Amino acid sequence: MRRLIGFAALFAFAAATPAAAQDATVVIHTSKLLDGKGATMSNADIVMVNGRITRVGPAAAVPKGAREIDLRGRTVLPGLIDVHSHLTWYFNRKGRYHTGGPNGDGDTPIQSILAAAANAYATLMAGFTTIQSPGSPEDKDLRDWIASQGLPGPRILTSLNALTHGSPDELRTLVQQRKAQGADFIKIFASASIRDGGKQSMTDEQLLAACREAKAQGLRTLVHAHSAESVRATVNAGCDQVEHGIFVTQAELDLMAQKNVYFDPQCSLVFHNYLDNRAKYDGIGNYNAEGFAAMERAIPLAAEAIRKALATKGLKITYGTDAVAGAHGRNAEDLICRVKDAGESPMHAIVSATSVSAESLRLGDKIGAIAPGMEADIIATDGDPMTDITAMRRVSFVMKDGKVFRNDGKN
Ligand SMILES: [Zn+2]
Predict the structure, then answer these.
(1) Beta carbons within 10 angstroms of residue 34's beta carbon
(2) Cα–ligand 1 centroid distance for 134 (angstroms)
(3) Domains plus CATH for the chain?
(4) Distance 267 CA to ligand 1 centre (A)
(5) What is the pTM of this model?
(6) pLDDT confidence of 194, banded at 50, 70, 90?
(7) Between the CA atoms of 3, 4, 8 and 14, what dihedral angle is there, to the nearest 10 degrees?
(8) What is the Cα–Cα distance from 334 to 268, expressed in whole angstroms?
(9) What is the per-residue pLDDT across 304-318, written as a single tens digit (0 to 9) for each?
(10) Which pLDDT value is given to residue 195?
(11) Are strands 220-225 and 241-244 parallel, antiparallel or unpaired?
């Protein structure tokens, strides 16, 4: 009974408060708008009600009581998506890459999650309203606190812990466990790290077992694969997305296109970030002289692989930076690399980081485009990325789910 009285009071309050009605409808005025699917509009208004877009089109009479936001003079586009970001990776207060466990740096789980929350905030402020993390168990609470407890950050999809080994039966069980634990998808390692040569590390049978089971459970599979053989094995096992693929040849690119497998290559941020922050990583695990040399060698290969991928008919290329400690908030750098070093058109790169990536997450009907029915994830840049892709570094407005998190120079 007490609960009923509480609800009644709440409704009475909402009805009597004009602010509630005002906040419900928002109109954004734009001069240049990229819809995320390849179209450009001039002088369009975006109308949204309760965080969902209801109309995009020529400026019209503003609904009575609507809140207006003026983004004219900037370039407006959908919130960006990074399909490969590790928010829980950070530098500790001694300026070293954080490591956990008994031989770790001694940071408490609370300190680590606070660092992850700071990374989430930096990512959102850079215009990335959705990220996919492959993955760590701490992502789950971060995801849920952002989704429902008011913590500012991008929408998160996570695989929780990745699958790295096990018999086919064990892998099937692990897939079921991840689902029960709340994973949004499954991450599998099919090859070694680039620092260890990138050779295939899971057999064809193991990959087949894991990807088939995930499909049966309704979960997507993202597979870390560097060598050409590991990419081929991944595609032939019916997995959904290849991560990295630094050593792919045209044959694997064609195979991915033919089998409708998404390709998620990185252009430069991950490599430059490691090299620029070498002293913070050096001496931990495979972050040694050999590892850094391998990453240095990877830089020209990465741009070349993307160039080839772009020329491959029908291949769907997502946008994933593999952001690790030191890279959060700089997620747009690979857009700049893809345009400047791999020859991608700015529009194609932005469509990749919005609607194509949304589709890869199976969220193509909710995010990644500015269109009626979509959630209001909207950003703006100072300058026009169509003529100067570095404008992607100058995000000055961020709205996620209809809520404004950033609007430089305005309150
Ligand atoms: Zn990664």
Answers:
(1) 25
(2) 6
(3) 23-77+370-407 (2.30.40.10), 80-360 (3.20.20.140)
(4) 13
(5) 0.93
(6) confident
(7) 40
(8) 6
(9) 999 999 999 999 999
(10) 85
(11) parallel
